[in-house]
Structures are given as structure tokens and as C-alpha cells.
Amino acid sequence: MLPKFNNPELLTTALSHRSSLNEADSGTTAKESYERFEFLGDAVLELVTTEFLFAKYPTDPEGVLTAYRSALVKTTTLASIARKLELGKIMFMSRGEEATGGRENEGLLADVFEAVIGGLYLDQGYEVVKTFLNEELFPYFEEIKSKKLYKDSKSALQEAVQASGLSTPEYKVINEEGPDHEKTFTVEVIVANKVMGQGTGKSKQIAQQEAATQALSAFEKK
């Protein structure tokens, strides 16, 4: 559940896409978009998640903890929580952005979730953010660990595909959004001339891993 903000304007800013600032009837009262809040929230999220994993797995080495953290804060996980919290429904954006699927865009949903974390940190501090993530994010880790979703999905997919006698998976960028310094990439992975997965991320590498994770799940069900 989304915590109640003491200062509602902080939540409004966290939910305001930059397109909403240029449209008078978008409903937002924010003076800036969520992007600065996202920057702050990303750092707070990484710290709280690192602390959680460091305490929970006191004997695991740095490399394993890094893999755990990457899986826990990846775009698809954060977007899933954003959907659960219905952030897409309450975001402020232009009609054009909404018409192109902005409310369901995984990268955008993940960004807004991070912005909400940044806003909550400004509103009520570290411990409240920690409680929020303990309730909404960290329960996902049991599934991540049990299914070994923290492993390198691209390598795992390639091994599974080649074991089946198929050619190496091909990754294709199908969309790029945002300014040059803050692009979001959407990538498809193709196996045997068939699209097996799609991923979104702030780099091509992250998007490829997301796509590979989805494809691996589909491939294992065949």
C-alpha cells in the first residue's frame, strides 16, 4: 500500500511525467517532473536494498550480493510493484503520452516507483522508506532466490537454447525513448526466428537481461 504523504505536493511531483508540465489540463500542480525525485529514489533504493541483503545473507560474497541486488531492483520487478500500487493509473501525463501506452510502459513505471521512494524519503525519512520496501519489495526476493532469477539470464538462455540444438539468441533494439543522457531502451530477443521475450531498461545491457529472463521462462515451459 502506498504510504500517506505528510506533504501531498511531494507525491504529486513524484507522479508527474515531464509531458504533464506542458499540458494545462493534465491535473498536476507540480512545478517539476519526477526526474530529480527518481535520481534520489534510485540511490535510496540501492542503499536500503544493499542493507537488507547484507544483513540477511552475512556469509555471501560481494559478487553474489550484487547479483541479488540487481535482480531485486530490476525494471520488471519495480514495474510489477508500481502496477500493484496502481501508480500508472494516478500518474500525471499528457494525453499524447497516455495514448502511446505511457501508463503501462515498464520503464516509466519503474522510474515513477523510484521517484515515489525519493519523495517518501524527503517527506518522512529513511526508516519509513525502509518499512515501505520491507512490505512491498523485499518479499519478492524469496521467489527470485528460489528460481535462481539472480543469475545472468543471457548466459542461462544461451545455454538452454544451444542445448536444444538451436542457434544463438539474437537481441534487437525495437525502441529508444528519452533524451540522450537518460534513454530507455526496449529490446526483443529472438530464438529460431521467433520473438521469445522483451525487456526495458536504462541501458541496452539491462534491457537485454530483462528480455532474456522473460525468454528463459517461456523457453523452460516449452
Structural overview:
This protein has 2 domains: 8-146, Ribonuclease iii, N-terminal Endonuclease Domain, Chain A (Orthogonal Bundle), CATH 1.10.1520; 153-220, Double Stranded RNA Binding Domain, CATH 3.30.160.20. Helix 1 (8-14) runs antiparallel to helix 7 and helix 2 packs across helix 8. It starts with 7 loop residues before the first helix and ends with a helix. The mean pLDDT is 92. It has 11 helices and 3 strands; from the N terminus they run H-H-H-H-H-H-H-H-H-H-E-E-E-H. The chain is mainly alpha-helical and 222 residues long. The relative contact order is 0.14.
Summarize the structure.
The protein is mainly α and 222 residues long. It is built from eleven helices and three strands; from the N terminus they run ααααααααααβββα.
Secondary structure topology:
Blueprint: H1 8-14, H2 35-56, H3 62-72, H4 75-84, H5 87-90, H6 95-99, H7 106-124, H8 126-136, H9 141-146, H10 153-163, E1 170-177, E2 184-191, E3 194-201, H11 204-220
Antiparallel strand pairs: 1-2, 2-3
Shape from CA axes? globular
- The domain count comes to 2
Residues in helix, %: 55-70%
Distance between the termini: 36 Å
CATH class descriptor name of the largest domain: Mainly Alpha
Briefly note the structural class of the backbone.
mainly alpha
Count of DSSP helices? 11
Low-pLDDT regions: none
Strand content: 5-15%
Q: Biggest sheet: strands, sense, closure?
A: 3 strands, antiparallel
Report the count of strand segments.
3
The CATH topology label of the largest domain is: Ribonuclease iii, N-terminal Endonuclease Domain, Chain A
Biggest sheet, spatial arrangement of strands: 1-2-3
The arrangement of helices and strands along the chain is HHHHHHHHHHEEEH
Rounded mean pLDDT score: 92
